[in-house]
TrEMBL record:
The keyword Transmembrane does not apply. Belongs to the iron/ascorbate-dependent oxidoreductase family. It comes from Ambrosia artemisiifolia (Common ragweed). Residues 205-277 form the Fe2OG dioxygenase domain. This is Fe2OG dioxygenase domain-containing protein. The keyword Nucleotide-binding does not apply. Pfam families: 2OG-FeII_Oxy, DIOX_N. Keywords: Iron, Metal-binding, Oxidoreductase, Vitamin C. One of its GO terms (molecular function) is L-ascorbic acid binding.
């Protein structure tokens, strides 16, 4: 009796990551190329892919409520129990929110040669476009492309931003800065501090505009648009599109956060939590 053992070539992840990165076309480039199978660099272990197992409604806080004490208490309770909440009547027009989403879509729908001009891993660039900021360190890459710009405290010159989205990027960032100032005052009060406490610490001075794109995936059960993480910021103001997909971990259970028309999702970030540990 004879046998011929088969040897499977080892998975050279570092080489595959570099090859993907050097295309400078991101996940959208894979989709445009017509791939039918998710490359190994994106495949998650099954146990790392969360499933929503319960229904819990994320608090929706009306910032237009005339009872300021009620708003402050709602923010205190939501921050303590969830670390997340949604806000409505926040002062940002629906038209600006819609245009912001459209601006992000327009950037990601540009041809590859246009986007390659911005593709970099140098976070100090005015506009950074790439796929997975932690591409070389994460256990599995996310099925996501991103562009971002630091918009405050020093805003880039308008001509340095992509023309397809520069006007709305500037307008939306200005609007969110105003909202951030209000939220930090309310959170200061919720902490039993003077309203300007967090503002005086410059928590509301910096802002980064981040535009994610999650291209259609041929095997969505194998990968994720964003793996489990926390935000290393003071606050994240998240504008979802109508597709949704956001989940948060609450008491060891993953819960869905479906889009609420006109609402923004607020995430208490690591820096703000660390400031009061």
């Amino acid at each position: 009796m004879t046998s011929t053992p088969l040897t499977i070539a080892s998975y050279d992840r570092a080489t595959e990551l570099k090859a993907f990165d050097q295309t400078k076309t991101g996940v959208q480039g894979l989709v445009d190329a017509g791939i039918r199978h998710v490359p190994r660099i994106f495949i998650n272990q099954p146990e790392t892919i969360p499933k929503a197992t319960t229904y819990v409604e994320l608090p929706v806080i009306d910032l237009g409520c005339p009872d300021r004490a009620s708003i402050v208490e709602s923010i205190r309770a939501a921050s303590e129990n969830f670390g997340f909440f949604q806000v409505v009547n926040h002062g940002i027009p629906l038209s600006v929110m819609h245009e912001a989403l459209q601006g992000v879509r327009k950037f990601h729908l540009q041809d590859m040669e246009f986007k390659k001009r911005f593709y970099t891993r140098d976070a100090s660039n005015t506009v950074v476009y790439n796929s997975n900021i932690d591409l070389y360190s994460s256990p599995a890459a996310n099925w996501r492309d991103t562009f971002f710009s630091v918009m405050a405290p020093s805003r880039p010159k308008a001509e340095e931003l992509p023309e397809v989205c520069r006007d709305i990027q500037i307008e939306y960032s200005n609007q969110v800065l105003k909202l951030g100032g209000l939220l930090f005052r309310l959170i200061s009060e919720a902490l039993g501090l003077e309203p300007n406490h967090l503002g005086d610490l410059d928590c509301d001075k910096g802002l980064t505009f981040v535009g994610h794109c999650y291209p259609a995936c041929p095997q969505p059960d194998l990968t994720m648009g964003a793996t489990k993480h926390t935000d290393d910021s003071f606050l994240t103001v998240l504008l979802q599109d109508e597709i949704g997909g956001l989940q948060i971990l609450h008491r060891n259970q993953w819960i869905d956060v479906p889009p609420t028309p006109g609402a923004l999702v607020i995430n208490i970030g690591d820096l703000l939590q660390a400031s009061f540990v």
